[in-house]
Each structure stands twice: as structure tokens, then as C-alpha cells.
Design brief:
With 73 residues, the protein is of the alpha+beta class. Helix content is 34%, strand content 14%. It has two helices and four strands. It has a two-stranded antiparallel ribbon with strand order 1-2. It has a two-stranded antiparallel ribbon with strand order 3-4. It is elongated and about 50 Å long.
Length: 73
């Protein structure tokens, strides 16, 4: 296993690879990429979550709880 830190070129190549984008390009999933947040495919639209990162659940959980609480009223 390669323990070297990925280069900017690695990040750029992963970001451009359509195999890392799912659900019509809305969700990013790449286990090699350890970043939690990264720019969306269309960068002016903000950031997205790398769903392959185990901490993504911790980032999404509060949002899901808030949505459920708002919709249950």
C-alpha cells in the first residue's frame, strides 16, 4: 500500500473521474480520497461530501435529525 500523501494532481484526477461521482454527479464516493469535503463538479455550486470517508456520517447525522424534527411537526 502506498503511504505517500496524494498530490494535487491525484486530487484533480479523482475529481475529474466520472466513476467517483454517483446519482447523476451529485454524490462523490472515493475511498482513496481521504478528504471529507471537496468542491462539487461545478465548483461555483459549493462543496460536497466524500461518502467513502467514515466521518461523512457524523457530518450528515445532525442535518438528518433536524430535517426529521422539522417534518414531524
Amino acid at each position: 500500500m502506498n503511504s505517500e500523501k496524494p498530490t494535487q494532481e491525484d486530487y484533480d484526477n479523482w475529481h475529474k473521474d466520472p466513476n467517483n461521482w454517483h446519482f447523476f454527479g451529485l454524490c462523490y464516493y472515493n475511498p482513496k480520497d481521504k478528504r471529507l469535503l471537496l468542491p462539487k463538479r461545478i465548483q461555483w455550486m459549493g462543496y460536497t461530501i466524500n461518502f467513502a470517508n467514515p466521518y461523512s456520517v457524523l457530518l450528515l447525522l445532525p442535518f438528518v435529525v433536524i430535517v426529521i424534527l422539522v417534518l414531524s411537526k
